[in-house]
Amino acid sequence: MKRNKRPIVALIYDFDGTLSPGNMQEFGFIQAVGFSPSEFWEESNRIASGQDASDVLSYMKQMFDAAKASGIKLRRESFREFGSMIGLFEGVREWFGMVNAYGKSKGVIVEHYINSSGLAEMIEGSEIAGEFKKIFACSFMYDENGDAIWPAVAVDYTAKTQFIFKINKGILSVADATLVNESWADDRKRIPFNNMIYIGDGETDVPCMKIVKMFGGHSIATYNPANRDKEATARKLFRQKRVNFMAPADYRKDAPLYGIVTRIIDKICSDNRLRRLGETE
């Protein structure tokens, strides 16, 4: 089956530090289990270094252990309740509608995806959850009572790359390990890499940023303008040519990020028209 002649543009976002100014656990969960953010992450890092373990699995264990010690049941609904407290950068709430409208005016379909090492259940509780075609992120397994019992998905910086290929082929199942590894003709792939825009803030996004950029898409390093370390990281990624662009994490219409994304959409539209001119009916 060939691709729709109306191009689909995929905007793929990291979450913590990209759409939100902090780690999602810091907007209520950490305080509820009796830790300060620094104490929580120090303990998580201690687990990772002491066990020579994944830092993602370590923070999930720390969440599990801290909640149990505090008498808090970890259920989907409790995660989503904490997710409803997540703060967002300026303009994020309005961003999706603006970009969708711009894409529609140019004759393209815009889809939004999350590719995060945070928790899917918390993102699902955020006020922007409904904007995403798919949320690829860490998650827990649950028992018959609805209590979290074990990690189901752990997404570190290299695990993130699998979801880029799934988006490319239109595969939304996290569990799939068959279709994503099959060889497909280009015209079967739902969203070509050159129709992807990857937006992230940190070095854990580098493998995805490099893949998208290498295969003709565009990667943007965002940063909290109030955080000099984050800005320095973005500048380093840009200087090392790991990303195409850098911009403050300001999602308002008059901010640089909107201008960059809309111009990339313009380019995708132009490239698509040229490609179609070269095709024979």
Automatic annotation (TrEMBL):
Q: Which InterPro entries does the record cross-reference, listed alphabetically?
A: HAD-like_sf (IPR036412), HAD_sf (IPR023214)
Claim: Cytoplasm is one of the keywords in the record: no
Report the source organism: Candidatus Merdivivens pullistercoris
**What keywords were assigned to this record?**
Hydrolase
Q: Show the Gene3D superfamilies listed in the entry.
A: HAD superfamily/HAD-like
One MF term in the entry's GO annotations: hydrolase activity
Protein name (database record): Haloacid dehalogenase-like hydrolase
Family matches, as Pfam families: HAD (PF12710)
